[in-house]
Amino acid sequence: MNLPENLKYTKEHEWVRVEGDVAYIGITDHAQKELGDIVYVDIDTLDKEVAQNEVFGTVEAVKTVSDLFSPISGTVLEVNSHLDGSPETVNADPYGEGWIIKISVANPAEVESLLTAEAYGELVGA
User: Fold this and answer.
1) Which among 14, 50, 52, 81 counts the fewest CB atoms within 10 Å?
2) How does pLDDT run across 25-42, given as a tens digit for each residue?
3) Can you give the pLDDT at residue 1?
4) How many domains are contained in the chain?
5) Is residue 2 included in any domain, yes or no?
6) In sequence order, what are the residues at sequence separation of 6 or more whose Cβ sits closer than 8 angstroms to the Cβ of residue 44?
7) pLDDT tens digit sequence for 93-116
8) Closest to 59 in 3D by CA, of 39, 85, 82
9) CATH number at residue 27
């Protein structure tokens, strides 16, 4: 299983990559495999503040719809527009082109409280 060491993870299977005061958020390789073929990503929180662990959108696969939980608090700055026409990018490249939102980092301590790659790997049995 692909678990980049430079990311932080949540028990709900989201990942975070911080660049300065902005964080990219997506779902993990494990999550996209469990969901199967992703057919739609619905984010309705653009320009809104979300709290840590609050739902910021959903991802729809062939068999199910799953809520997306924000790993950190902040304002949703951007939604990956590439996913509008190509939601399967989340399956193909979950840690790269398949990122879902960019969010401002309201509280850097929240990032530090997230799981390391090693801890997340233990959680999912990788």
Assistant:
1) 81
2) 999 999 999 999 999 999
3) 78
4) 1
5) no
6) 57
7) 999 999 999 999 999 999 999 999
8) 39
9) 2.40.50.100
